[in-house]
Amino acid sequence: MMIDVKKNLSGLILASVGLLGACSVQTSDSSLNSMDAFEARKAAKTDDGSVATMLAQPVAPESVAVRKDRPVVNEWMLSVEPIKSTFLLGEPIVVRVRLENVSDEPLEVAPLLQPEFQQTRYTITRLETGGSAPFLPAARYLTLPATHMRTFQPGEYVEEEVRLIASKAGWMFKWPGKYEITVDFDASTSGANLMGTHSAIVTVRAGNEQEQAAGRIMMEGEAPLLLYWEQGDHATDGLARLERIIADYPGTLHAVYAHFALGSNDAQPFFNGKTTREPRLESAIEHLQAVRQALRAPNAPVVPAHMRTATYERLADSLASAGQVGLARTVLDEFLSLYADDPTMADGVAHIRTLRASI
Amino acid sequence: MSQHLSTALVGAALLLGSSALAPAAHASLERWQDVSFTVTHNDGLALTGASLDGYKVIDTMAVPFFVLDGVQYELTEAQRVSGPTVDGASGAMVVEATYRVTTHLGVVDVTVSHAFFDQDAVEADLAELSSRVSFTGPEGDYSFFWRVDPDLRGAAGDRVQVYDRIGSRGAWQAPETEQAVELAGALEFDRFKVRFNDGPDFAHQTQLRVAAPESGHATAYLLANHDGEWETLPDLLLGGEQLQSIQHYGVLPQPVLGSDMVLWYRADVSGASGEVGPDMYATTVAGRQAVIEMDKMPSTEYPPDVYNRNGELLSVESAFGKAGITINRIFKDGSIPDKAKLGLAELDAIMESSMDYQATQDTATQWYSWFGIVQDFVVTGVLGVMADYYEYSSDDAYREGAFAFYVGMEKTLPMLEDVGYPPQDLDLYLIWTVTHETGHAYNQHHEDFWYDENSCFYENSAIMGYSYDAYTLVWDFGPNSSASMRGGDPDEYVRPGHGVDFVNLTDPFIRYPYDTTISHRRGHHDTQQFTGGGC
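The joint structure predicted for all components is written out below.
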């Protein structure tokens, strides 16, 4: 039984919606520890054989400098799991990364799992060629790890969605085939790699002719930036690409992502350095309703938890701002009915519940 | 919109603090060679010259005159009673000569010494020249005059700058005319107020900076090289007016080319004995000249020019200076409207709309980046962002600039106190963030935290590291980043806003053929995790 203790990381979850993806901190009881639960979920998703999540054992440090004022980190489990086994070419690759205290003692760490902090490193290997390269995000953050430091009780973990979308080099998963995603997390004060290496394999499939064409548009120019930023009036190249996907390939999953990025941009004010453009409610509602339709369909595509939450939140905000408060409530209620029992949506459900109570 | 300009000097933060406070010297500054010197004579006067790294730094330096109670006396062969001697036993090469002058008040014994300290004796990237006069004689008002001809690689290429205030900020400026510069109390900016620059290009630049430590009565005179001044003191030094114009050009305080400048230094002292004289520091730098255009929101503040961290002076300029880049900052008065909770796309838009100087200041010999001080970011706890790594952007440029979050810092620093840290000074974090994030614009990474064997990622790290707090930072980019920025990596690898694609955009899994410095291989290509130091 999973127990969500709602230990949000310094407001990181809500503050970062749209940027960092979903994140949760949870504990597990002794009868089914969280690693078992994670393994169970992993196993359920590897039935088709296309995903193999390798959970290496923590690497025992050969030497750990024990310092009175620094955490000693030696009993952590880092794991990575894609949100689904197979992605379409040009579909954002998103993984869930989990850092868990598997020791018998409380341990401290600054769980900076997002690649922008450059403390957790993501390496992509194209298995067909063997070529590998780091995923270098389009932005780098400077933070003070001490302000993120927190104590994890035995069995407690943090889990976050990580979007591998806009690397410095653009779209990295640009060919059909299998890719290995390797994660390194450095929890030490010394920089020694105490956490070991953990990886998962994802498959990228080409899709049909329409999907291939849409995917090619999605992977080029500023389209990945729009998916990454979820706003950007000035990124005219990216906006045009997304609109073209919607116009020319409306039935593809890529069009759902395009609707999401464009709807998110329209739903939010945008400051261009000189003036602030207010939300374009009509357009936002139109785009986000399209995403909502896809998400509540019987064969709804598996998309990131953050995308689901943000779609409903931004749609409800836009509807409420447009005076359609009743419909806004209906949208939020729909979200709760769809995802209340989904453990991967726990943070989103909590957030939407709060939002629902305020409308 | 009014704008003001600021330029600062290379490596200056090292200078004021005692050597005990300064970071330990490292050996990565490979352009340095020991100072070599020459002694020639002019009518018995010992003229000392200095060369550094194979290039002339000082053509001649001497103390040709002194004035006692308004009467001028020369130091010539007739008065020389000993020396010049050359002694290297005291840790410096010292050229010394003693003169005995009969004045209208009595006999005055004057000993002139020029002490050259090589970089091992003082600092890693500076060579110090301390010139001193010690005298004994009748009670009176003495003025001693040094004449220094800093012919840095040629008499016609001297370029001189003076540090002064423009509005509320300090700035290096090219003087319009000959002038006198009071050095006393010049602790405002890394204690230097005068500097000479020269070099055949920005990649081979030499600087000579002048300080007046412990002096309340020193004046530097920047004069053109006048004929006959070995025989007669220039009028200006005695209070007269002799204000010849100085050639200069450019919007920024660009050094002057084509002028032959001479530095006179005057020290006044009253009494029957004493010791006075200037300290001068010479450096050769890899010599990249760069501009940072600074803009901000009205509700935020720029970092101070210099931050005094327990006696060690930190500045953006000193950090980059040690990496071989002379930074000129252009400060705008805050043209970005206030706006809270900015997202990455908004940051990108702000930068694109605010780079007013890029068109005129971004050249092959003068690099350019932009920096914005804004309120806060949508992600809690982030001090700064370099949000421009994407190589596919429509303007085909990346690493053009970065941001610091002023309000974000105000909120974050108390969080440090919550976990047991003492009160933190926002100005220190502002300077660090500007320097760190601009380091990203210069293609440096968090992996470049290594400074020496004491460095940890979280403690005693170089500027690109993730220090637990800014008080444990080593104010240095570290040897790997310094080597990269000062020319170890190709220009297009380092230059902000430019550069070839260091990943293959057609196939990101094909490595760029250039073999970068070790730390940058980690940042760009390798899967190898950080390697730490002495933690």
